[in-house]
Amino acid sequence: MADAIAAAAAKHPPAEKVKYQYGTAGFRMKADILDSVMTRCGLIAALRSRSLKGRWIGVMITASHNPPEDNGVKLVEPMGNMLAEDWEKLSTQMANLQTPEEVSKFYHETATRLKIDRTAPARVVIARDTRASGARLLACTLEGLKGAGAEYKDFGFLTTPQLHYLVRCFNTEGTHQEYGKPTEVGYYEKMGNAFQRALKGKEAAGSLTVDCANGVGGPKLTQLIKYIPKEALEIIVVNDNVIKPESLNVDCGADYVKTNQRAPPSSKAGPNDRCCSLDGDADRVMYYFKDANNVFHLLDGDRIATLAASFLGDLVRQCGLADSFKIGVVQTAYANGASTQYVERDLGLQVVCTNTGVKYLHHAAEKMDIGVYFEANGHGTIIFSEATLDKIAEYEPRNPGQAQALEVLRACVELINQAVGDALSDMLLVEVILAHKQWSCNEWLATYTDLPNRLLKVKVTDRGLFQATDAERKLVKPEGVQARIDDVVKKVRQGRSFARASGTEDAVRVYAEAATRAEADDLANKVAKIVETAGTLP
Ligand code: 16G
Ligand code: MG
């Protein structure tokens, strides 16, 4: 066994002078320096599975919204969660070892230290997005899996959430928590059925145009549409060119729309046409439309969270279950202050703020009966605690009104991908809610008014100097910087601003919001200046 592991590692030596890091969402960098990382992730995935006595672990090869020449890999825990933090560290250590012998030694020493039975079965589900480098990197990963003697199932091209779905399905097969059929078709059937049941005869007003970022979401949405009757919802798929992988995320996709605050240039949507954009691996979604005056409006993750929280709140009340469980909303510091206020004051729900990154929000939501979690950038989902799920399943309605609401609630539970944020699932949920409320995007937008805000990126000598606390809303280091930020913030009406080191790029991000656009811009610039001065070493 020792030799097989060293032999696998020997096939792909690490790139010279590169420091690899399992970041916020796995390893992500230029694809041409990832071969060694993939093989070693194969080994780690196998070991992780063995540490859990052969439960299925997921490996997703993707770099999400990054440019086409990048790629990456992330590992998925048995219930579809992101990799446990101590295993992120092990992955980073493994990726940075130099020789095959060191890799083999690390594998065995880790197994011994963590009391992992090396003869236990190792089971891994693997998939990739549509990047040109994906086939090569898959082969590198398989080398690691084979070296470790793992059993694996390669599902070819999938969206990231589909892979998370499959992992959860395999691990819950035959239990009372069975999540679904562990096949790609099983995913479409589950979504399609749940969507129709949740609609309960309601129809979406007008069509929905979906920009798929020229990524894997395109062909997968085209499959999913076969399970959705056109009378219920007409979906127009655009930017679904996966034959030309160099067009991935270029001038389209969720990140383009969020960053540029405009529709993709290729968009042919007319006034009031409902549109949304997925990112490259379809785990985040952004809604938007142009109004009658051709003004662009974004309906981001905050909007999806508020829409879903208010709808679920109503449903739970209509079922007569209002006293049985509490709905909470999880946001990050990037959530617009107006959305936080809307949830707390208008919806009367609790808001929790966490660090940026899906795993932090997910963990916070797991502590709630019903946890609605979304980042402003469109990552997110809703999770129901086990006790909540049992109660919803067992509840006996007392009148036809309750029965109706309960059916919709149960269908929504099925429709929502509880393994991880899923652009396709989130999109169908939004469509269900808009259909029930008979709302257009205008009415959705009118629920509250966003505070004007500005996001800036500041280049610094070492972003590691910037250490934050309080869900990344306050800097503890460099010393004195937070006091200077507080000073400029307090002079601005409804001012709020924070700076945090990016987890994915070599930069510090500055966010500011205020009562007016001019004040928000001015505040952002002032805080950026403070950060720049503190972060530039003489
Ligand atoms: C990653 C995270 C995303 C987060 C973003 C922040 C996942 C799957 N993705 O893309 O949640 O918003 O990083 O990037 O966790 P930043 O640290 O560069 O601002
Ligand atoms: Mg993504």
From TrEMBL:
Record-annotated Alpha-D-phosphohexomutase alpha/beta/alpha domain positions: 58-89, 99-174
Residue stretches making up the Alpha-D-phosphohexomutase C-terminal domain: 455-529
KW Transferase (keyword) present: no
Reactions performed catalytically: N-acetyl-alpha-D-glucosamine 1-phosphate = N-acetyl-D-glucosamine 6-phosphate
Pfam families for the chain: AMG1_II (PF21405), AMG1_III (PF21404), PGM_PMM_I (PF02878), PGM_PMM_IV (PF00408)
Obligatory cofactor(s): Mg(2+)
EC number(s) on file: 5.4.2.3
Role played: Catalyzes the conversion of GlcNAc-6-P into GlcNAc-1-P during the synthesis of uridine diphosphate/UDP-GlcNAc, which is a biosynthetic precursor of chitin and also supplies the amino sugars for N-linked oligosaccharides of glycoproteins.
Residue span(s) of domain Phosphoacetylglucosamine mutase AMG1: 199-285, 300-439
Residues where Mg(2+) binds: S64, D279, D281, D283
Gene Ontology terms: biological process: carbohydrate metabolic process; UDP-N-acetylglucosamine biosynthetic process
Source organism, top-level taxon: Eukaryota
Xref: InterPro entries: A-D-PHexomutase_a/b/a-I (IPR005844), A-D-PHexomutase_a/b/a-I/II/III (IPR016055), A-D-PHexomutase_C (IPR005843), A-D-PHexomutase_C_sf (IPR036900), A-D-PHexomutase_CS (IPR016066), AMG1_II (IPR049023), AMG1_III (IPR049022), PAGM (IPR016657)
The entry's keywords: Carbohydrate metabolism, Isomerase, Magnesium, Metal-binding, Phosphoprotein
UniProt record similarity statement: Belongs to the phosphohexose mutase family.
Pathway, per record: Nucleotide-sugar biosynthesis; UDP-N-acetyl-alpha-D-glucosamine biosynthesis; N-acetyl-alpha-D-glucosamine 1-phosphate from alpha-D-glucosamine 6-phosphate (route I): step 2/2
The record's free-text note on cofactor binding: Binds 1 Mg(2+) ion per subunit.
SUPFAM superfamilies: Phosphoglucomutase, C-terminal domain, Phosphoglucomutase, first 3 domains
Active site as annotated: S64
Gene Ontology terms for molecular function: magnesium ion binding; phosphoacetylglucosamine mutase activity
Protein name in UniProt: Phosphoacetylglucosamine mutase
Entry keyword annotation includes Acyltransferase: no
Positions bound to substrate: E375, A376, N377, R500, A501, S502, G503, T504, R509
